[in-house]
Amino acid sequence: MSEPRPFLGWRIVGVGFATQALCIGTSIASFPIFLLPIAEAFDATKAQISLGPSFFIVAMTLSGLFVGPLLDRHSIRGIMCLGTLLTAGCLAAMSRATELWQLALLFGIGMAIGVTTMGPLASSTLAAKWFRRSIGRAQGFTNVGGPAGAALFAVASGIAVQQIGWRTTLL
Predict the structure, then answer these.
(1) What is the pLDDT of residues 87-144, one digit of tens each?
(2) What is the pTM of this model?
(3) Would you list the DSSP string of 96-164?
(4) Which of 3, 45, 68, 148 is 20 to 30 A from 16, alpha carbon to alpha carbon?
């Protein structure tokens, strides 16, 4: 007789915490750290650069309408992996951008879709599929990842931008 498999739900919560920390921390939470260096590099106003988060929020909201049903029907792991690759690719491409519009597309649209497919929506869906009881607690712990990542990556990005520059920090 085989032993019952251990419940892996709390490990899944850890994965959700980590993915939220990573995607929120490396995107919208760290954006202010890059504002001035990017404005200087592209001879742009802070107002022009600040449009990035607006595009990001709109694109993240709209993409959620499409990503949500995909998370219900397909492999959450696969979707989150694609989101991770998209986010990493956008960060790398942003480090090589030569025009402001490129940053707007990469951050405002690409990163937003990446965050939608690997972040809060995906990790909350993942937790909901693993828990029947304590779902609120599981999603609560998962959702703490975003603010934790914001604090961690904002500080790390600030130090890195000062030490190695914004482009290398993005890369």
Answers:
(1) 999 999 999 999 999 999 999 999 999 999 999 999 999 898 988 888 899 999 999 9
(2) 0.90
(3) T--SHHHHHHIIIIIIHHHHHHHSHHHHHHHHHHH-SSSHHHHHHHHHTHHHHHHHHHHHHHHHHHHHH
(4) 3
